[in-house]
Each structure stands twice: as C-alpha cells, then as structure tokens.
Write a structure and sequence with these properties.
The protein is α+β, with helices and mostly antiparallel strands. The protein folds into 3 domains: about 90 residues, no CATH class; about 40 residues, no CATH class; about 90 residues, Ribonuclease H-like superfamily/Ribonuclease H (Nucleotidyltransferase, domain 5), CATH 3.30.420. It has a 4-stranded mixed sheet with strand order 3-2-1-4, covered by helices on one side.
C-alpha cells in the first residue's frame, strides 16, 4: 500500500499536467506489478527479457527506478555474464588442427632414430617419404628421442685444470698531476697471482699491446691461454701479432 501511494505521489504532476491517460495507465501497471511481486518471489525470465533490460540500461539512465521484477544488480550481472560468455566463445580453441600421428608411425620414427644416431630429422623425414608416409619434418623432429649432450666442464673446473697455462692482461688508468691520463697494462700469471709484465703509455694501440706480450714472454714460453676482455684494442692486428 505504501509503495502504491509513493507511485501515486510521483504521478501527480502528470495527472494535472495534460498526460492524465498516460499517468493512469502507468499507475495501473505499477499496481499490478506490485501484486505480482508479492505473489511470486522469483519470476521465470527468458533470454529475451534479459536482453531487453540490458539494452534498456544502455539507453535510459532512469531504468533502475522502473525495475521491479529483479534488482538492478541482477541486470548488471546479466551483462557481465553475457560479456564473459561472448569472449569465451570467441577466444575458444577451434575444433580443427593437425591430424594426430598414428602410434605405429611414432614407433617407427623412434626406432629409426635409435638405430641411426647420426640421422637428423631431415634424413628420417626423407626415408619416411620413400616409404609413402607423409609426415611433416617438424613432427619428425618433435617425435625423435632427445639426446642429452655430454656435460662440459665448468669455468671453475677449466681454471683449476689449466691454471698453470693461463695468463690475463688488462688496462687500468692513472690520472696525473697535469690532468693527463696514463694507461697501465698489467700481465698477470694466475698460477701464483704474480705480475709478469707491466708498462705505461699515454696512447695505447693494438701494435703496442701485442709487443708487450712478446716482451713478457720472449723465449717461446708463451702461455696456452690468454684471458682478456672484448676491447677493440685486442682486434685482428693484436691477434695476428700474438698468435
């Protein structure tokens, strides 16, 4: 009764404003909706009913005030569910795809790869084509048993095994009192952490650096391994002179 009185007060401007027929019809419909809402707690709704309210909410800002059968949160939940269902269907995986490889072909590929360790995927793919078996080379590569490479020694192990034959060289700079820079080359033997050779220059070049290595090891006593960084000074001219 209170709800009906509120609706009546809301329609008073229309009753006296020239829209009497429309206001009375609206009042009658709202009274019937109030009775329907009291008798049926959860009315059955179709998909078209949900789409109607979803569309109405997009074009009418006052749709919440006219909604009676469900709450406005329910309409918003319908819209979220519709959005989620649409994009789930759109982004779903297609039914098509590559045909599955028969178990006999898989076993044959594994047997051929095991019996011929030097054969790669292109060779096995060619042999299968000779037998009339059409399989992609990428599929053959995927089905071949993976061979683990032999473990290589770590950098620490390498240094431990060849520490007597390893020499390192590098530059560091020293500023002078006259605001100049001197470049100091140090050649270090890793076995005893001993400085084998050093020299100072203001303009280091590849030829000058290579000559320092020759001076540090004059009598065919050069080490087997020379550690350096990737500076451009150790370019082709340096390598040609040292090697």
């Amino acid at each position: 009764m209170i709800t009906l009185l509120l609706h009546l007060l809301r329609l008073l401007p229309f009753l006296f404003g020239g829209h009497r027929q429309l206001a009375l019809e609206n009042l009658a419909l709202r009274q019937q909706l109030a009775v329907y809402h009291r008798t049926i707690i959860r009315p059955p709704l179709r998909s078209t009913d949900r789409l109607f309210w979803i569309g109405l909410a997009k074009i009418w800002t006052g749709w919440r005030g006219a909604l009676v059968i469900v709450t406005p949160e329910t309409v918003l939940r319908w819209q979220r569910h519709r959005f989620r269902e649409y994009w789930t269907k759109l982004s779903g995986r297609p039914n098509g795809g590559r045909p599955q490889v028969h178990a006999e072909i898989k076993a044959l590929i594994i047997r051929m790869a095991t019996a011929n360790p030097l054969w790669g995927a292109p060779r096995i793919h060619g042999e299968l084509l000779k037998l009339g078996i059409s399989v992609a080379e990428r599929t053959v590569s995927r089905l071949m048993p993976k061979r683990r490479p032999r473990p290589s020694q770590t950098w620490r192990t390498f240094l431990a095994n060849h520490v007597r034959d390893v020499v390192a060289l590098d530059f560091f700079t020293v500023p002078t009192a006259r605001l100049r820079v001197r470049f100091v080359l140090v050649v270090l033997a890793h076995h005893r952490r001993r400085v084998v050779h050093f020299n100072v220059t203001e303009h280091p070049t590849a030829h000058w650096t290579a000559q320092q290595i020759v001076d540090a090891f004059p009598d065919d006593c050069a080490p087997s391994y020379l550690l350096r960084d990737r500076d451009s000074i150790y370019g082709p001219a340096f390598r040609q002179r040292v090697i």
